[in-house]
């Protein structure tokens, strides 16, 4: 024997209530879709964001370390020198303690290439800029401690001189070898570039750097 009552008016009221609940849920989903999508998008790029923030913090610390020497000596304490950007622009000096010299920019037609920037105590001198057609190539940058100087390059003109070898800093140490001079190659400019001078040795012990060969 069944005790279930199925009055038509009660079923109609229940259906109306369920429809209202469904409409409310749909409206809530629509309202929340924008914010949840944004959260998911940010989450997908969380790794990139963290990497960018870490790089910003590292650069800020490096800027704080380099600020005093930038003010006093116009060069950083740690870090590479900037590359020359304008035609014939010289490379920037590397950090006093550590850093490679910036590369010199190539010269325009008839313009000499610029010199590479000097290195710090540890580092390589910047690469010389290539001379423009018919111009003299720029000299190589001075090497750091125990590092060779860069080699001169020319296009259409006489070769540049080799960079000077780095000096030994302190009581003990060997000087760096001088860079090789560029070789001549045109009938109008047959002269070779001179080799760079060797770096000086330490005050108490060490050997001076050997001069670089001529081109």
From TrEMBL:
Spell out the SUPFAM superfamilies in the cross-references. Answer: PE/PPE dimer-like
**Which Gene3D superfamilies does the UniProt record give?**
HP0062-like domain
Residue ranges, compositional bias (Gly residues)? 158-185
Q: Name one Pfam family in it.
A: PE
Q: Which stretches does the entry tag as region Disordered? A: 158-215
Q: Where is the PE domain?
A: 4-65
Its recorded name reads: PE-PGRS family protein PE_PGRS16
